[in-house]
């Protein structure tokens, strides 16, 4: 099941796909708001990669009817894509988990989610475009450490880790409210 959603705030049309019981956007959020950035401060990157958001401003950028997925919602998606239950709770920014779920999620992958390698912003510098994508997860491990997902261009894994929010700005992918 594929469809679309039009954000009435800026008229941007997002592709959507239903995987299991969840409806995911098939592109990263591109809404321009406080605390969001174009990779390299170049707005022409938004169409391919989406914008990068600071944690403190993520919720304000989300359109009505959608939300930032929790760690459990990510694990539901990963299960639908065939990740073994024994791998779901593995953490580590470079610790492999699953089989080929990261490959399925990448642009052109079999899931239809089409995650681009959008890189990230730290302070006022940009890193890792076309190499990694980092995504906010709506789950706080405690002490200000927020879960994230990372997909790497040359790895089949979808990495799960926590880190402080510091001055990072990373991608946002949304799930439709049920």
Number of strands: 13
Tally of contiguous helical segments? 4
Helix content: 10-25%
Multimerization status: single chain
Structural class: mainly beta
Strand content: 35-45%
The H-and-E topology, N to C, reads as EEEEHEHEHHEEEEEEE
The shape is globular
**Major beta sheet, strand line-up:** 4-5-12-7-8
Largest sheet report: 5 strands, antiparallel
How many separate domains make up the residues?
1
Rg over alpha carbons: 15 Å
Q: Report the span from N to C terminus.
A: 16 Å
Show unreliable segments: none
Instruction: Give the mean pLDDT.
Output: 98
Task: Jot down its keywords.
178 residues, mainly beta, 5-stranded antiparallel β-sheet, 3-stranded antiparallel β-sheet, 13% helix, globular, Fib_succ_major
Present the secondary structure layout.
Blueprint lengths: L1 E6 L4 E8 L2 E4 L10 E2 L8 H4 L2 E3 L3 H4 L4 E2 L3 H10 L20 H5 L12 E5 L2 E5 L2 E11 L2 E8 L5 E7 L3 E3 L4 E2 L2
Antiparallel strand pairs: 1-2, 2-3, 4-5, 5-12, 6-13, 7-8, 7-12, 9-10, 10-11
Could you explain how this protein is built, in words?
The chain is mostly beta strands. The chain has one domain (2-176). Helices cover 13% and strands 37% of the residues. It contains 4 helices and 13 strands. The strands form 4 sheets. A 5-stranded antiparallel beta sheet has the order 4-5-12-7-8, with no helix packed on it. It has a 3-stranded antiparallel beta sheet with strand order 1-2-3, covered by helices on one side. A 3-stranded antiparallel beta sheet has the order 9-10-11. The model has no long low-confidence stretch (mean pLDDT 98).
